[in-house]
TrEMBL record:
It comes from the Bacteria. Residues 306-630 form the Peptidase S8/S53 domain. This is S8 family peptidase. GO terms for biological process: proteolysis. It holds the Pfam family Peptidase_S8. GO terms for molecular function: serine-type endopeptidase activity. SUPFAM superfamilies: Subtilisin-like.
């Protein structure tokens, strides 16, 4: 049991509010110009539609001449629209006779006219006659087909397209198909409407949503049949099955260059095609480092079971065997049956398993009881490669289904290229879906920059240095961005920091202890999310001072369990080995708090993280891009001290609702004669249902959450009133031009990218949020309040709640004044007890 257990937060308000809505920003100048030149703008749009209609007829005629398979729904015309991104609601395109296929940047929309432009032409006619204004917000309709490969293909495949794709070339690609039916808005009880009338209206709305869900299922099946037939008629074939998301589905296919060009240019519902990307598979030379003389006992029967998705494990290893559940082991590598780790030079999954089980403290002597059970899932072959026959999103769902009783999964696997930033990838979206629907945690490595790269646009460390991009600057290059699926919004993404320094006459390591490893990929993540969230010790390269060679030494490498005779090695580096150290901490949290939601573990994990002391007091955006919230601590995650106290809350909240919590600060901490430094840390983690065809966090998620704190000296009643006012008036996902309130607490990150100590980052852009501030003790109010606020995403059902965990800590710095007991006494609640 913890000596200083976490305490529950005191809830002082749990309520919902009737929103008046937010007026939003005004029309762009281009829209205003269109309003002032109705005839010219309307005529231009009509000419654009006529040009596209003619092109569509020409394409259909050409296809028949070439003997190409018929397009499904030949009356559907694919288009690229540009609308006013400041004010246009893209869901209103349904009234223009358009189906939204995908939302892109700068107001561009991939769409499809479902009625041969009849509705659009009617809108344009009314606009010219000055009977509507909405058409002014439709800026243009792109001509031709040249836009399609640029918007639909991923970067690597687009480069190949520009170089020229030959008809006979063969490709393995992941294809995303839009499949969306707009749901009507949730009814609102207007002034004067009786409760009975509103209940009837609400009941009818729910009945209609059930009908819409059935129609969507039917549309999914129809389009899946259509696209499969289309690909097979073109000589291709599907690999595996379909993976469905709320607004789309995805699959893997093998097809020729001719068929690829056809689906890119002509299939109306496709919004993304990515060439299958190989897994990052650098294998390093391994050296032995000592022997083992210890006895490992099996975990206690009530210990958690953690899942290792990797290259297999040496299951009879002296350090691992008592923890392995061999009956649970599964091999997914095609045409193989072994679950053993066959990667040369000490294996890969075996090293990961050892780090999950023991963290950085591998036992060498004595008797030690393993803390957890391990389940071995083999997906990588002896070359550390994943077969193209394994469609990663489908594989993640299959693994989760096979391991329904497991909550924590370690995935030290990434693609070899940086993640895409236009839409969340299928792999990352599948992880997000599993995290939300099945209450799982995926710990994912950030990915590694290789020592050398063969492509100009994918340089390795040597190429960066040769191009005068020094460490650590090259870590912030676009080519150094985190690798798929590390951008998953709900995963815990883990980067690497240096374990130590080395310097002699000929060679030196890149970084100092606790600073970014020379290979660790950096953020940000999708839509400005903080990624990686945390870092752990993954080692560093050693560079020749007079040359370019890179080597590895035991002094700067983590100690790892390895396959083979001696069982331990210290010459391997990578984020693959920092990630399982974080899984180790999460495993202990699950063991100590078995009845808590997994979000409770995530929130305590990031709450425990801290940046290196040298930069913690004055961090910049680049530090968060490298290291997220810092290095987590098992001790801080599971316990407090006489000088630190933590309050927690887990629950669920619906959009347009708020929960307000209060923490009382005793007089002994607030004396005017004292000037202690008080660190306040706040973490919020949540999940919601994702969808893939939209472009930002609030469009990706069914709902999203923020948190706010009261101002210094503000009463809980006044804070309650402020929260209500801001919920009614404020667009929480847009930057506000309002000046910073001098009475607000000066948080490090904050909700406005211009206000925090760290500029250009907003905490609400992440689903795993943390912020912190240091206040003088005499500045503290007698009571500090916090609000967790739910916001509407794409889901129109405002009664659908999303789970969250919220954590607040107070810590006195550089002082022997004890605060735990005195704060506990004025905030009397039942402690969150760890299991003995």
């Amino acid at each position: 049991m913890a000596k200083f257990p976490h305490l529950p937060l005191r809830t002082i308000l749990d309520g919902s509010y009737k929103f008046k809505g937010f007026a939003g920003r005004g029309k762009s100048q281009r829209s205003l110009d269109n309003l002032n030149n109705r005839k010219a703008h309307g005529t231009s749009l009509l000419q654009m539609t006529e040009g596209i209609q003619q092109l569509n007829m020409d394409v259909l005629a050409w296809r028949k001449e070439q003997g190409l398979p018929d397009l499904p729904d030949e009356h559907i015309i694919p288009v690229l629209l540009q609308v006013d991104p400041q004010v246009f609601n893209i869901e209103s395109l349904k009234g223009f006779g358009m189906e939204v296929i995908a939302e892109e940047e700068s107001g561009f929309i991939i769409g499809a006219s479902v009625d041969q432009f009849k509705s659009l032409k009617a809108k344009i006619s009314k606009f010219i006659k000055e009977t509507n204004q909405g058409t002014a917000l439709l800026w243009q309709i792109e001509q031709g087909q040249q836009w399609r490969p640029e918007y639909i293909l991923n970067e690597e495949l687009y480069w190949k397209w520009l170089d020229g794709i030959k008809d006979e070339e063969q490709f393995t690609v992941d294809i995303s198909i839009s499949c969306h039916i707009k749901q009507s808005d949730h009814p609102v009880q207007t002034k004067g409407m009786s409760d009975e009338s509103f209940e009837t209206k609400l009941s009818n709305w729910y009945e209609n949503t059930l009908v819409t869900d059935v129609e969507l299922d039917q549309l999914m099946m129809q389009r899946q049949d259509q696209v499969q037939t289309f690909i097979e008629l073109g000589g291709g074939n599907l690999v595996g099955g379909f993976v469905e998301y709320r607004d789309s589905f995805g699959f893997r296919a093998e097809l020729s260059g001719r068929a690829l060009k056809d689906i890119v240019l002509n299939y109306p519902y496709v919004f993304e095609i990515a060439e299958h990307c190989e897994i990052e598979r650098q294998v390093l030379t391994h050296e032995d480092f000592g022997e083992i003389d210890c006895t490992i006992l099996a975990p206690s029967i009530d210990s958690p079971n953690l899942c290792i998705i990797d290259s297999g494990i040496q299951q009879n290893h002296i350090l691992l065997e008592p923890a392995i559940l061999p009956d649970r082991s599964i091999n997914f590598v095609p045409h193989e049956t072994t679950v053993a780790d066959q990667v040369p030079n000490g294996g890969h999954g075996t090293k990961v398993a050892g780090a999950v089980l023991y963290g950085a403290a591998i036992p060498r002597a004595g008797t030690v009881q393993a803390p957890f059970f391990l389940t071995n899932i083999r997906v990588l072959d002896a070359g550390k490669a994943m077969s193209s026959l394994l469609f990663e999103p489908e594989l993640m769902h299959t693994i989760a289904d096979h391991n329904g009783d497991i909550s924590i999964f370690n995935l030290s696997i990434n693609t070899r290229v940086p993640c895409r930033t236009r839409h969340m990838s299928q792999w990352a979206s599948a992880i997000d879906m599993i995290c939300h629907e099945e209450a799982k945690i995926f710990v994912v490595s950030a990915g590694n920059i290789n020592d050398t790269g063969s492509l100009v646009n994918r340089p390795g460390i040597k190429e960066h240095l040769a191009a005068s991009r020094p460490y650590p600057s090259y870590l912030l290059e676009p080519s150094s961005r985190i690798a798929d699926p590390a951008q998953s919004i709900f995963a815990i993404t883990v980067g690497s920091v240096c374990i130590g320094e080395f310097d002699d006459a000929d060679r030196a390591s890149f970084g100092k202890k606790d600073f970014p490893s020379s290979f660790s990929r950096s953020g940000m993540g999708m839509w400005g999310a903080i990624k990686p969230e945390v870092v752990e010790y993954g080692g560093d390269w050693i560079k020749e001072k007079a040359g370019s060679n890179l080597t590895i030494l035991p002094q700067t490498s983590p100690e790892l369990v390895k396959t083979g005779l001696h069982g331990i090695g210290r010459v391997d580096i990578g984020t693959s080995f920092s990630a399982p150290q974080v899984t180790h901490i999460l495993g202990h949290l699950q063991k100590l708090f078995p009845n808590e939601h997994v979000l409770f573990y995530k929130a305590l994990l990031i709450q425990s993280a801290r940046l290196p002391e040298a930069i913690w007091h004055n961090p910049h955006a680049r530090h968060l891009r490298h290291m997220g919230y810092g290095i987590p601590s098992l001790d801080r995650a599971i316990d407090n001290t006489p000088f630190r106290i933590t309050f927690t809350e887990t629950g669920a909240i619906a959009p347009k609702k708020a929960k307000i919590f209060s923490v009382k600060v005793p007089e002994e901490m607030r004396g005017q004669g004292e000037a202690y430094d008080i660190l306040i840390e706040v973490s919020l983690c949540y999940t919601a249902e994702p969808r893939r065809t939209r472009k930002n966090l609030r469009s990706y998620l069914s709902a999203w959450l923020t948190w706010e704190s009261s101002k210094l000296g503000q009463s809980s009643q006044a804070f309650h009133a402020d929260v209500l006012k801001e919920m009614v008036e404020k667009d929480w996902d847009q930057e506000q031009e309002e000046p910073e309130d001098p009475h607000s607490i000066k948080w490090t990150i904050w909700s406005n990218s211009k206000w925090g100590k760290i500029k250009d980052i907003r905490r609400q852009a992440s689903a795993n949020q943390k912020d912190w501030v240091v206040l003088k003790s005499f500045e503290l109010p007698s009571e500090l309040s916090f609000a967790v606020i739910g916001h509407k995403g794409w889901e129109n059902d405002l009664n659908q709640e999303v789970p969250y965990a919220f954590v607040v800590s107070f810590e006195i710095l550089h002082s022997e004044v004890e605060i735990y007991d005195i704060m506990q006494q004025v905030n009397i609640e039942v402690p969150i007890q760890a299991r003995v």
